[in-house]
Specification:
Number of helices: 17
CATH topology of one domain: UDP N-Acetylglucosamine Acyltransferase, domain 1
Shape: globular
CATH architecture of one domain: 3 Solenoid
Helix content: 25-40%
Largest sheet: 8 strands, mixed
Radius of gyration: 32 Å
């Protein structure tokens, strides 16, 4: 009976639940019908909105087409651009074809992004092209002299003093990286900032830069990253997408930075010019497109203004802006000291420079004083490009000969004029005011390649260009402008030539400026720093590797976390008993690694995460290490060999390496 009762009770409960479920199902049906009706109404509203947008777009397209027609008519009628419509049927303005509309829309885009519009661009081009054809020297009337500046040696008393001042101010700085180039000139198919400056860690340039900036920002902000823009990267059509992808895939290289800290601005291309009359050049493969090329890295100043980033940085309390270029791994070695010079001397603009080899294909920092001619600027300290330098200096008696010998060395064996590195430190408040006043428009130049001495026709279309380092021409006449100079062998080693071109330059006694010399210079700087801290670091001397003279031994890498500044690294190494043989390789990667005693004859890598404190109380590593091996002809020709090795001509074979890694925060002591 009990079982039956229970059964009945269960059946009654089921019946009650069935009624409740039916009510719930009915409620769900009503809700579903209501939601379907709402979705239908939303879809109809979206369709109506889309129709309105399509109508507006059609109106915008019609307006754009009318504007494009008027722009093209003005170019043809008033600016001598009749060749753009050559062969077009009469009445094209009323019924333009799809290809003709494409040309008009491109002209509209160019008109919108060019300073002064496309008419202003053509007018400036004609003025500059006329001066070029006449052989006019834009520096005519200026007499060059060596400007006033400061020269700093690694770890000297002055270096340490200025670096301390700069480190205290680094929390109020932001950086600008000019990274619009691909690596084709180097023999590399990717973007240049994705190349590794050294093979021991394989970290790319962009990672190196973000790690340096993060370390400096934390040091200047109580150990935390400021919640503002720290780095602006100027990209191009070629590099914008790959740069964004690299940052996202690598998660900003685990530096703690995000899109809040790193902003990208993309420069646009400018029209090419077919002749001295300023005729816009059509693309040879598409006569309904204007041929365009990059305007030059001077666009970075324009973009900082038009993007609003310069004003944003000023509003967030940034005091100084530091500009640098894409493939110099040593840029941060002297940067903090140079910032200290800027602050101590109250400079509006400070050019970071190096000793320059006379005749080298690099610009120089000169003081120019107007001896004759018009103009309201009597003196200026600025870069002069190497293509203009020799002719300008032939008007100045050389110290050694008493005659105008041109771009020659003085008694020291170097040019008396410091070399330009395209690394600038500007005081942001004054810089923003200059951008406001000038509209961010940089001085332009044109450099056509003429067919013959008549200078009447070009070998190929040219365009107007501008350079980042020409900023002094926009500054007030009384602006405080100077330079800070460092040893080129330790502080500046750009990577800009292929291996084949580097061999030719090296054979001519010029800087090879290739991947091999860039890597060698990084090792050499770290060795010099460790020696300055008292370490015994043997040198393997200079030797030829794949036809390039380099100093590859020992191979030393001090990461940005370990070496945020020279002084911080020396503090971690100072007073230690360190002995490193020439054949050795060493990586120290961590913010809080202190070395007390290290005996290295081989290869070692010691790293720790942020929050880990490591003391190397006593460590002896003797092993077979890494061996540098030149690539064979077969390896150089093989598609299986990575490009980053081919552009060096060598690799490092790891025979034996000791690795000690601390992946968790804590306090650790190595004693063995």
């Amino acid at each position: 009976g009990a079982t039956m009762a229970e059964s009945v009770v269960s059946s009654g409960a089921w019946a009650a639940r069935s009624v409740e479920e039916l009510d719930a199902m009915d409620a769900r049906d009503r809700r579903d019908r209501r939601e379907r009706l709402e979705r239908q109404q939303e879809a109809e509203a979206r369709e109506a909105a889309r129709a309105r947008l399509d109508a507006l777009q059609a109106k915008d397209d019609a307006d754009a087409l009318r504007a494009g027609v008027e722009l093209l008519k003005e170019l043809v009628g008033s600016y001598g651009q009749a060749h753009l419509v050559e062969g077009w049927e009469e009445g094209w303005a009323d019924r333009p074809s799809a290809s003709q509309r494409r040309l008009m829309l491109q002209l509209l885009r160019l008109n919108g992004c060019l300073a002064g519009g496309i008419f202003g661009y053509i007018s400036r081009a004609r003025t500059l092209l006329s001066a070029s054809a006449d052989g006019t020297n834009p520096l005519e009337g200026y007499v060059p002299s060596v400007p006033d500046g400061i020269s700093l040696d690694l770890a000297s008393a002055d270096f340490v003093k200025y670096e301390s001042t700069g480190a205290d101010a680094m929390g109020a700085c932001a950086f600008v990286l000019v990274a619009g180039g691909l690596g084709e000139r180097l023999g590399y198919s990717g973007i240049k900032v994705s190349l590794p400056p050294e093979l021991l860690t394989g970290s790319c340039y962009l990672q190196l830069y973000l790690e340096h900036i993060a370390a400096l920002a934390r040091n200047g902000n109580g150990g935390k990253l400021p919640e503002r823009t720290l780095l602006v990267i100027m990209t191009s059509d070629d590099t914008d997408g790959p740069t964004r992808q690299l940052l996202l895939i690598e998660e900003y290289f685990k530096t703690g930075m995000t899109e809040q800290h790193v902003k990208l601005v993309k420069q646009q291309k400018v029209p090419c010019l077919a002749d001295g009359a300023g005729s816009l050049a059509l693309d040879p493969s598409d006569h309904f497109q204007i041929l365009t090329k990059p305007h030059g890295h001077g666009d970075v100043h324009t973009l900082l203004l038009t993007s609003g980033l310069a004003e944003e940085l000023l509003g967030s309390g940034v005091s100084h802006l530091i500009f640098f270029q894409d493939t110099n791994a040593l840029v941060f070695a002297g940067l903090t000291a140079a910032l200290g010079v800027s602050i101590s001397r109250n400079l509006l603009l400070n050019s970071i420079s190096v000793k320059r080899r006379a005749g080298d294909a690099s610009g120089a920092i000169l003081k120019l004083t107007r001896a004759s001619g018009g103009g309201d600027r009597t003196t200026i300290t600025t870069n002069v490009e190497y293509s203009q330098l020799d002719a300008l200096l032939r008007n100045v008696p050389a110290r050694s000969t008493g005659t105008g010998a041109g771009d020659v060395a003085d008694e020291s064996g170097w040019s008396p004029f410091p070399g330009n590195c395209n690394q600038l430190i500007v005081s942001l408040p004054e810089y923003v005011q200059v951008l406001r006043t000038s509209g961010g428009v940089m001085p332009e130049f044109v450099n056509p390649k003429y067919v013959d001495a008549s200078r009447s026709s070009f070998k190929s279309p040219t365009r107007l260009e501008c350079m980042m380092q020409d900023l002094p021409w926009l500054l007030p006449a009384d602006a405080n402008v100077s330079f800070t100079s460092f040893d080129a062998d330790l502080f500046y080693s750009p990577v800009k030539n292929s291996l084949a071109d580097a061999r030719k330059k090296a054979a001519s006694g010029l800087s090879a400026a290739c991947a091999a010399t860039g890597e060698s210079s990084l090792f050499r700087f770290n060795a010099a720093l460790m020696r300055a801290a008292g370490a015994q670091v043997e040198s393997g001397g200079e030797r030829s590797v794949s036809g390039i003279p380099v100093m590859m031994e020992p191979q030393l890498v001090l990461s940005p976390a370990f070496r945020s500044t020279v002084s911080s690294a020396m503090h971690k190494l100072g007073g230690a008993q360190i002995k490193i043989t020439a054949r050795s390789s060493l990586v120290l990667d961590g913010e809080d690694i202190k070395v007390e005693q290290l005996d290295l004859d081989g290869a070692a890598r010691i790293s720790c995460v942020l929050g880990a404190s490591v003391t190397i109380r006593k460590l002896t590593v003797h092993n077979k290490g890494r061996v540098l091996r030149e690539l064979s002809q077969e390896e150089m020709a093989s598609p299986a060999t990575p490009e980053l090795l081919k552009l060096r001509g060598y690799t490092f074979d790891i025979v034996e390496e000791r690795r000690i890694q601390f992946d968790e925060p804590g306090v650790y002591v190595i004693e063995e």
